[in-house]
């Protein structure tokens, strides 16, 4: 036998070298030994590795995500594959590696190893959206071939290493959304700095904790930067003149810092600039002159302390301007009508200034204009001519004009237009809320394209999203089997970023494999695809529908020869059996989260009784068809009668329902803690003979949805609806503020509000609930019901109690309109917002069942609902505030009822007998006439 000196550390590099030597030596035994040892080492450090990683050669029998050239690993591309663990030293010692992309694996944690600099051939390092932490190693400056460095959306801390200045080939530098601090490094006689990156096009350093001044030495005319993004740091001092020397710039974001002094005059020389963000600083001096910057599309100078001045002339001279944001910038004088005629203009926000005179809409007003916000100025008059309120929102509150009679119906009613992007028939709605559900879904891959800057603000203009189908889809289709790319929603988030929620659909099949998911992630986060709207990044919702293939150990058996085969197979079998046992244990735990509960270890839950299977059989008459009162995704619901005579509702989980098992355990643990008259009461549960059942108090009048649709026969007048709303709101307030610990319901909808005796509202169905601040609100999969889902939660995967507030706002609109949230491809939230802006149309949406009621407080109720439906959670009220507002409406209705009762020609008793609509809170009759269109309650 030929004896060769092998590196016995059994790392991946060792295996690659051994695979090269395999045909030249007979030392296959050592190779097999190293294979088993290396697998064990990788499995100890990474979880959820691809199933085919048990094959002997990562190149010859290619491992998923591993790409080789002549038996040398040159690329590891595994974004979005649910990897977990630290970054293994075994991978970092691959000296020929050129691309390492592990983005959107949130389970990857720990620091970057100091040996990162050993990857001397690395060209792209893409670790977007993981959970790495600690300092960025100085050795990163040894990666001389590096062109793309993406470490954004992690938890890196400390200073930017000076050594990054050695990366002379670097084009992309993205360190945004970390916890980096200190000053921005510049070079001196002994150390390099960022100013030496003359070939870099992108400095993305926003949303960190950088402090100190913005160094003048950081910028020079030799640089080729097109994007400088430093928003939301702690930078101070003035903006250096040298910034104006980089004539290649197209985007500048310095907003949300503490910069002061005047804006450099030479900034106007940046004639290639598209977007300029200087808002929320302490800038002073004259308003910068942006004349001749003809490519500008988006300008935000808001919340600075510029000198008092009339609107500058450049307002009227920028032919491509779509968005002008100059809130609180000390503007005075008249509004420029010429500016309102700019052909591309979409949004003008000049709120909180000193503008005066008359606002006059020109005859040639831009057809693209959607919002003019002039609140809190000194405007005297409004000459609006033909004003299409459904297309243009004008906000004039807190102006002198609003004190005049002409302002009726204009001030204090206008709202910014709501942006809602329709689903465009991408797939059935359940595919988006639960892409792994057993339905006609083809397992879409869902994610967010987040643009750090963009050149438009009319989010409902679908022309701006044509790139998804026209360029992104063909670009991806050349690399991965793909049916289509769909836009499901769009919003501008709290950071001023454009967030596009997109869905990628596989062609005809049921799922993407890991290679498909990884390819999409790599194309986007390694910026192989160039977007039309500048810098972006991509985050995803974890994909859980990967096909798993049976592990094939035949190759290992066939290669094992001689006496050593017994040793190899023993080790391999042990590892395989151990792994399979662990997989089986994890699967069993997922499918049965009660595996730790046995007959002697059932948790002693306060107020919840344990029932045997026989007990439940008896009280439901052996689950007879007559006892069944409902059915849902969880299972069937039966009406039962306990031996005590108490009526109960029993939810019986479908056998083999993984989701049902998790919901079952969640509801028991949560509901055993909560006791409130507006929360359905858990009587007990059955965990016996493989059955999972919940025993609730029986709520006799069905759900609010059934009442609104007429299925239950319960009649809901306006007063009843108000009392149902306040009851459900009190239940949610209890969950958010008084339960210990507080609870987020996560699936508030009219189906989950039950109506008890006297139509007392009870919040029900806690299968998706979570404890407040559990995992800081971060979720791995968005759950809920389409139409009720909070868009902020859907986009960020951060769950807060304000997500329940949003869903409750949708329920409030259901109470007013009687409509489902999504009905005939129309969204009730959007319909109501549009109706509120057009006099004479609002009442068309009111539930016809309310036509004979006096709708006292309807306008306030709808406005409260709209507040609950704000895109940003911070702008929504708390549930306790909602309770107080609705209580005031009920008091007003009671007062009017009392006045009417004392002035009617009939006696009080006679009114009750005659069916006065408010003589009893649950009366279903009415003899009061009300001309609703004469006084629309939306517009009073």
Describe what this molecule looks like in 3D.
With 940 residues, the chain is α/β, with parallel strands linked by helices. It contains 18 helices and 44 strands. The model is unreliable at 1-40, 549-570, 583-604 and 904-940 (pLDDT under 50). The N and C termini lie far apart (97 Å). The strands form eight sheets. A 15-stranded mixed sheet has the order 1-2-4-6-8-10-12-14-16-18-20-22-24-26-28. Among the domains are: 430-540, Alpha-Beta Plaits (2-Layer Sandwich); 609-697, 2-Layer Sandwich (Phosphorylase Kinase, domain 1); 714-935, Transferase(Phosphotransferase), domain 1 (Orthogonal Bundle). It is flat. Helix content is 23%, strand content 19%.
Detail the topology: elements first, then pairings.
Elements: H1 12-21, H2 28-45, E1 66-68, E2 73-77, E3 84-85, H3 89-92, E4 99-101, E5 107-110, E6 124-126, E7 131-134, E8 148-150, E9 155-158, E10 172-174, E11 179-182, E12 202-204, E13 209-213, E14 227-229, E15 234-237, E16 251-253, E17 258-261, E18 275-277, E19 282-283, E20 298-300, E21 309-310, E22 323-325, E23 331-333, E24 347-349, E25 354-360, E26 371-373, E27 378-383, E28 393-395, H4 430-433, E29 445-451, H5 466-477, E30 484-492, E31 498-505, H6 514-525, E32 536-540, H7 554-559, H8 564-591, E33 609-610, H9 613-619, E34 628-631, E35 635-641, E36 647-653, H10 658-671, E37 682-688, E38 691-697, H11 704-709, H12 718-738, E39 743-744, E40 753-755, E41 761-763, E42 770-771, H13 791-796, H14 801-817, E43 822-823, E44 826-827, H15 828-836, H16 858-868, H17 879-903, H18 908-914
Parallel strand pairs: 2-4, 3-5, 4-6, 5-7, 6-8, 7-9, 8-10, 9-11, 10-12, 11-13, 12-14, 13-15, 14-16, 15-17, 16-18, 17-19, 18-20, 20-22, 21-23, 22-24, 23-25, 24-26, 25-27, 26-28, 33-37
Antiparallel strand pairs: 1-2, 29-31, 29-32, 30-31, 34-35, 35-36, 36-38, 37-38, 39-42, 40-41, 43-44
Helix pairs in contact: 1-2, 2-8, 12-14, 12-17, 14-16
């Amino acid at each position: 036998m030929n004896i060769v000196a092998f590196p016995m550390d059994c790392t991946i590099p060792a295996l690659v070298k051994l695979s090269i030597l395999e045909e030249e030596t007979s030392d296959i035994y050592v190779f097999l030994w190293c294979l088993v040892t290396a697998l064990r080492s990788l499995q100890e450090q990474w979880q959820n590795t691809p199933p085919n990683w048990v094959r002997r050669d990562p190149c010859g029998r290619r491992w998923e995500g591993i790409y080789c050239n002549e038996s040398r690993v040159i690329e590891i591309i595994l974004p979005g594959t649910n990897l977990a663990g630290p970054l293994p030293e075994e991978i970092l010692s691959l000296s020929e590696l050129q691309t390492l992309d592990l983005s959107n694996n949130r389970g990857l944690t720990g620091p970057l190893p100091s040996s990162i600099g050993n990857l001397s051939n690395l060209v792209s390092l893409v670790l977007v959206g993981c959970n790495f932490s600690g300092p960025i190693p100085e050795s990163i400056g040894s990666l001389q071939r590096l062109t793309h460095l993406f470490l954004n959306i992690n938890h890196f801390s400390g200073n930017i290493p000076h050594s990054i200045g050695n990366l002379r080939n670097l084009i992309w530098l993205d360190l945004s959304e970390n916890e980096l601090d200190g000053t921005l490094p510049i070079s001196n006689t002994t150390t390099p700095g960022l100013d030496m990156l003359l070939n870099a096009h992108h400095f993305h350093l926003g949303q960190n904790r950088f402090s100190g001044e913005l160094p003048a030495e950081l910028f020079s005319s030799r640089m080729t930067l097109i994007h400088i993004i430093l928003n939301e740091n702690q930078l101070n001092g003035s903006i250096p003149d040298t910034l104006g020397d980089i004539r290649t710039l197209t985007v500048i974001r310095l907003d949300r810092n503490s910069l002061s002094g005047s804006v450099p005059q030479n900034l106007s020389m940046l004639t290639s600039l598209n977007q300029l963000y200087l808002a929320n600083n302490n800038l002073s001096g004259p308003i910068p002159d942006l004349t001749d910057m003809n490519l500008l599309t988006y300008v935000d100078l808001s919340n600075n302390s510029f000198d008092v001045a009339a609107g500058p002339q450049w307002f009227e001279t920028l032919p491509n301007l779509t968005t002008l944001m100059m809130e609180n910038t000390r503007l005075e004088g008249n509004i420029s009508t010429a500016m309102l005629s700019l052909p591309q203009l979409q949004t003008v926000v000049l709120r909180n200034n000193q503008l005066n005179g008359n606002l006059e809409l020109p005859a040639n007003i831009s057809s693209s204009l959607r919002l003019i916000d002039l609140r809190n100025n000194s405007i005297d008059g409004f000459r609006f001519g033909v004003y299409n309120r459904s297309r243009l929102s004008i906000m004039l509150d807190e102006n002198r004009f609003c004190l005049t009679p002409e302002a009726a119906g204009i001030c204090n009613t206008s709202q910014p237009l709501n942006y809602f992007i329709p689903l465009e028939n991408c797939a059935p709605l359940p595919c988006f809320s639960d892409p792994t559900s057993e339905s006609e879904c083809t397992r879409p891959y869902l994610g967010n394209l987040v643009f750090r800057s963009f050149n438009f603000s009319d989010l409902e203009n679908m022309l701006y999203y044509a790139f998804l189908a026209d360029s992104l889809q063909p670009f991806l289709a050349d690399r991965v089997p793909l049916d289509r790319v769909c836009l499901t929603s769009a919003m501008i988030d709290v950071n001023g970023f454009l967030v596009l929620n997109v869905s990628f659909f596989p062609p005809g099949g049921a799922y993407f494999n890991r290679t498909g998911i990884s390819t999409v992630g790599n194309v986007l986060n390694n910026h192989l695809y160039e977007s039309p709207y500048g810098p972006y990044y991509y985050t995803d919702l974890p994909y859980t529908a990967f096909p798993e293939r049976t592990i094939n150990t035949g190759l290992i058996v066939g290669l094992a020869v001689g006496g050593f085969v017994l040793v190899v197979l023993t080790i391999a079998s042990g590892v395989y059996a151990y792994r399979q046992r662990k997989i089986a244990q994890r699967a069993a735990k997922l499918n049965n989260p009660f595996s730790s509960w046995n007959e002697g270890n059932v948790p002693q839950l306060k107020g919840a009784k344990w029932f045997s299977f026989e007990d439940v059989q008896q009280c439901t008459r052996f689950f007879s068809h007559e006892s069944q009162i409902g059915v849902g995704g969880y299972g069937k619901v039966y009406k039962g009668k306990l031996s005590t005579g108490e009526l109960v509702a029993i939810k019986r989980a479908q056998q083999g329902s993984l989701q049902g098992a998790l919901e079952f355990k969640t509801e028991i643990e949560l509901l055993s803690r909560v006791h409130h008259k507006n929360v359905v009461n858990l009587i007990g549960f059955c965990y016996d003979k493989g059955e999972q059942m919940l025993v609730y108090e029986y709520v006799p009048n069905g759900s609010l949805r059934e009442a609104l649709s007429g299925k239950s026969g319960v009649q809901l007048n306006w007063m009843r609806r108000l009392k149902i709303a306040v009851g459900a709101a009190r239940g949610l307030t209890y969950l958010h503020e008084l339960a210990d610990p507080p609870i987020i319901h996560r699936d508030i909808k009219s189906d989950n509000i039950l109506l008890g005796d006297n139509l007392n509202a009870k919040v029900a169905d806690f299968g998706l609930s979570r404890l407040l601040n559990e995992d800081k609100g971060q979720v791995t999969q968005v759950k809920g019901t389409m139409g009720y889902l909070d868009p902020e939660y859907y986009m960020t995967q951060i769950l807060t109690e304000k997500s329940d507030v949003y869903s409750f706002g949708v329920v409030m609109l259901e109470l007013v309109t009687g409509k489902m949230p999504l009905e005939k491809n129309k969204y009730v939230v959007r319909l109501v917002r549009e109706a509120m802006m057009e006099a004479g149309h609002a009442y068309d949406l009111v539930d016809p069942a309310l036509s004979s009621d006096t709708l006292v407080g309807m306008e306030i109720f709808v406005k409260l609902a709209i507040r609950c439906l704000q895109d940003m959670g911070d702008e929504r009220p708390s549930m306790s505030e909602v309770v107080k507002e609705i209580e005031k409406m009920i008091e007003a209705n009671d007062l009017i009822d009392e006045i009417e009762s004392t002035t009617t020609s009939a006696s009080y008793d006679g009114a009750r007998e005659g069916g006065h609509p408010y003589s009893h809170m649950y009366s279903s009759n009415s003899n009061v006439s009300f001309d609703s269109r004469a006084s629309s309650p939306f517009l009073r």
